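Hello,

Our lab assistant flagged a job as stuck in the queue for most of the afternoon. It eventually completed. Since we weren't sure the result was trustworthy after the delay, we are filing this so someone can double-check. Below is the sequence as submitted and the structure that was eventually returned. Let us know if re-running is recommended.
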Amino acid sequence: MTQPHDLSATRMAAAVRTREVSPVELTDHYLARIERLDAQVGAYATVTAERAREEARLAEKAVLDAADPAELPPLHGVPVPVKDLNLVDGVRTTFGSAVYADLTGFADDNVVTRLRDAGSVLLGKTAAPEFGLPCYTEGAVSPPARTPWDTSRSAGGSSGGAAAAVAAGLAPAAQGSDGGGSIRIPSSVCGLVGIKPTRGRVSHGPIVPDLFGLSANGPIARTVRDAALLLDVMAGHMPGDLYAAPPVDGTFSSYAERPPGRLRIARGIQPAVPDAEVHPDCVAAYEEASALLEELGHEVVELPQVFGPDLVPHFETLWGVMATLTPVAEESEHLLQPLTRWLRARGEATGAPRLLQAHAALQGALRAAFPVMDEFDAILHPTLAQPPAPVGYFHDQEPAENFERQKRFTPFCAMYNISGQPSVNVPLHWSGDGLPIGIMLSGRLGGEGTLISLSAQLEEARPWIDRKPPIWTA
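-- returned structure --
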């Protein structure tokens, strides 16, 4: 028997507009599932039940009062949570840190405003690690976020709570953010579609700076069409943004309905991170995706190595400096996680000349890499070098070892944060142990549409929507 959480977000939005299902019914259903099941996966840092029910009640009234419900906003009445790194006015926002455990949001981030204007209902704030710095979601303010496919394993990070919520049927789709893989990593380990858009596609304002352009807000969803719909809602440039993405021909949702045509696709499996080894399950996913792309008529060729290990220290320099951007009073520093303190110490020890040299070195590498990468419509890599990691695999180590393990776990994602190119996780493969293993497609700057068309073609060829973890039917 179909339950509300079996509906895709796109189908849910359509059902609300045709009055087949009510926003109140949807919200009550998800809040009940969260109350009953979230302890198993640690998806939410804060649940805004009272606010969600009021928003749902107002959304239902708008549907009943509308002369033409088809003209209602695209996510009207659809529950969508927000990551706990994003400010929501009047809602607890911890940034994943005990330092901010009692902070109440004092503004709406632009992406939150756009989700609200699209009619979505806020279920709550999804769990994130401290300041979004690690590739896993464990810390002091909420339980570890776990993949519903094996709750002994991490849901990844830093959008781990968002991915756990969607994969467990505790939200139809979710907003995430990605500064070094933080949408694609949890999407891979939770069997979901996750899109890191082109740099400047989604505004970081009005509070969060976008100085280096590494991070991007984007969608996490069960289907390509749902992810495209959320990206349509989130996308927009605002005054003061340092970056602006190239314009799009039509909507992202329209690309999910368009055949991609025959594409020239490069593939690469050589990690830029020294000592990173690609697990056989991840190799299998990569090879199967390559074969499927060729079956679908695309040309698949080997990618010349455009990013080498010499760039890793420069990225680490930027990452350490970024760790210092969130203000922490001296008397509160003892509340920080060991990894955060270690990264902030590295950042605080970085002088301006060294920072500028690192940024300049990365830009120089990109100037050589773009002419090569732009010869292809898409680039294929494994999303991760390893299957989902056990809870504690990173977090229980000393900071230096923790960081090295993270680098070896995710050696492919960050290069596309450096370049600003769009990048998508596609959940095509499951291991013999029943664990999701994602593949990653990246494109030209402004090329989200091509990636969405290609991902939708892969989804049609190898549907994954009926793959559900055990918690789904609980």
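-- support follow-up --
The delay was a queue issue, not a problem with the job. The result is valid. The chain has a mean pLDDT of 98. The radius of gyration is 21 Å.
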